[in-house]
Amino acid sequence: MAEITFDGVTKIFGDDVRAVDDLTLHVADGEFMVLVGPSGCGKTTALRMLAGLEEITSGTLSIGGTIVNDVLPKDRDVAMVFQNYALYPHMSVAQNMGFALKVRHESKDEIARKVGEAAAILRLTDYLDRRPKALSGGQRQRVAMGRAIVRSPQAFLMDEPLSNLDAQLRVEMRLEIARIQRLLGVATVYVTHDQIEAMTMGDRVAVMRGGQLQQVDTPQDLYDHPANEFVAGFMGSPPMNLLRGGLENGADGAVVVLGAQRLAVPPRYNASHDLGLGGAVVVGIRPEDVEVLSGAEVAGSITTRVERREALGAEILVHLSLLDAEGTSAFVVNDAGAVVTRPSTLVAKMGPRAEVRVGDTLRVRFNPERFHFFAADSGVSLRQA
Amino acid sequence: MTTPLLERPPGREGPATAPRPGRRRVRTGRAALFVIMLGVAVVMLYPFWVMIFDSLKTEAQFLAGKGFSLGSWKALNSVIPVGQQVLSSTIICCASIIVIVLIGLPAGFAFSKLRFRTSTLIFLVIVSAMMVPLQAILMPEFVNITKLGLTSGYFGAVIVYAALGTPFSVFLFTTYFRGVPDELIEAGIVDGLGYFGVLWRLVVPIAVPAIATVTVLQFIQIWDDLLVGLLFIQNTSQRPITVGLAVLSAGRTTSIPELMAGSFISALPAMLVYLGFQRYLVKGLTMGIDR
């Protein structure tokens, strides 16, 4: 078991494709680190460099304090679980799991003992003589895990291991993987594009975009205090509402001007955020922090129109446009350069029995404790550390 | 009143018993296909029937058109050394195929899975050699092999057959290995294998259909070939069966029943090899194409 350190690691494919750009990240011994981001963000390349399957263009990568830039994959003592499991089709489950030990010339008794132990942990004991093609997706996934476990490696590397499973099995397996990782206490780097996996499994989550690390933090801190617009929009489903507006000094303090409507900024944000009045700003508010009001107009509320309604059973998502002075719809302006696709509407959550129809006019109020502010040009959070 | 469990609902009996037009069309199509395949089978098997039928006669019975005898089979070995020639053919075939597979496997693995400069160019050059007919290079090859003094044994013929068959095997193995997921190779590397370890312990076991395909196709080609055996094996005691039969048929008095018996013996190994490996053939030829 060991810690892993990326120190300014860069990977350039060809002459100018910068897949990973100056990645600095530390994974503590026993920690479950999730690398998350959209397709092409460099998370898999980072993992493959760690496994030794890609050469490092610059920077240093160390496992257990030893720089492994030029160390062959077989000498790094890491085990990898692949997206499509990569089980050896001509071998039985037991042979698959014990193969790495056999390559290391461990004795047959020792291999059988370790395979048996891993199979018991993974509930695979009854399937040891089967070939991979005779297993279900979940069982194959567990065999792939077993192949990693038996080696007792310094680190587990997992490349989207759940993406080939159906939704229900994915939920089961992510609990299973998290359980096994905690049981074994081995440093794990887990790559996924699924932010729910990232939130539920990781001790810490590293969000990547365009080869660059955007933020690394615990799942809850990442959700509560995103470092920039991208992280705010990527983590959470539905994503955070991001509204562009102008920040002005009103009679009772700062206000955000959203088209024809004005939103008062609670005074406490002046202390915790570098707001800088007079400029453009992006206000972020999570859908669960948008309260739909009934009855008369309330101070601090804004007027919206229901553009779309999605009934999910447990709740209803309403997509809202802001109304301007003439009462016509104005859609929320989003960050056009963002990789994450965001709705052009404001999303709010309502109870499953709420009487709401497309075209209805709703007044909504944002939870004043849960505002997020981002610079309009750079997208960086205005929150002061 | 209770309803019987197995009672058919009213109005469904008619459609259930009368064949539907679509199903009838499928049956007619299958019948037509069966007749066509039967015709093709007759055309293909007729020469074998003639070989067997005519070999079971003496020369006199063959000319008279009636009677059966094992005489030609008994006389065959006194006319040509059938056993020795079948052995020669087997040695030449096996040695050539071993060389072809041993070169084709790593080359195909390298072209499909390893990234190196000019790999595409080298691959195209090798594969383009498949387009060169044997006759075009026969004389230069003969001159070279003779200069090297390799025409007295099997070695010269084996080299020529291996050179002719290797481009095809490289092409087939490359195509096949392109269908093998890269992750399988990478899993082997992370598990502690080098490239040769991956090739030998992971790739070869799953390349059995491709190996079988190369083996069958090359076996049939080499076993049936006359020209290379005739030119590159000068020692008459090491002639393959095809050369032996050619000599027999070129004799002043050719016994057709003996020639048929020899031809049947000559054809049999290729058929057996084909029948033994045929279940791998389609998979070996098509894997990688559908990607």
Structure commentary:
The complex is a heterodimer of chains A (385) and B (291). With 385 residues, chain A is of the alpha+beta class. Chain A has two domains: 4-234, Rossmann fold (3-Layer(aba) Sandwich); 241-375, OB fold (Dihydrolipoamide Acetyltransferase, E2P) (Beta Barrel). Chain A contains nine helices and 21 strands. Chain A has helices spanning 43-51, 93-103, 108-122, 137-149, 167-184, 195-201, 219-224, 229-234, 268-272, and strands at 4-13, 17-27, 32-36, 58-63, 66-67, 78-81, 155-159, 187-192, 204-209, 212-217, 241-250, 253-258, 261-264, 280-285, 290-293, 301-311, 316-323, 329-330, 346-350, 361-366, 372-375. Chain A has a six-stranded mixed beta sheet with strand order 6-7-8-3-9-10, with helices on both faces. In chain A, strands 15, 16, 17, 18, 19 and 20 form a six-stranded antiparallel beta sheet that branches. A five-stranded antiparallel beta sheet of chain A has the order 13-12-11-14-21. In chain A, a hairpin with a 4-residue loop joins strand 16 and strand 17. In chain A, helix 2 (93-103) packs parallel to helix 4 (137-149), helix 3 (108-122) crosses helix 4 (137-149) and helix 4 packs parallel to helix 5 (167-184). The longest helix of chain A is centred in the middle third of the chain and has 18 residues, at 167-184. Chain A is elongated. The model of chain A is unreliable at 338-342 (pLDDT under 50). Chain B has two domains: 22-71, no CATH class; 76-286, MetI-like (MetI-like fold), CATH 1.10.3720.10. Chain B contains 14 helices and no strands. Chain B has helices at residues 13-17, 21-55, 59-64, 71-79, 82-113, 119-128, 134-147, 155-178, 182-190, 195-206, 208-224, 227-232, 241-249, 256-286. In chain B, helix 13 (241-249) packs antiparallel against helix 14. Chain B is flat, with a radius of gyration of 27 Å. Residues 1-14 of chain B have low confidence and may be disordered. The A-B interface holds A 51-53, 73-74, 78-80, 82-84, 86, 88-90, 99-100, 103-104, 147 and B 181, 183-184, 186-194, 197, 202, 205-206.
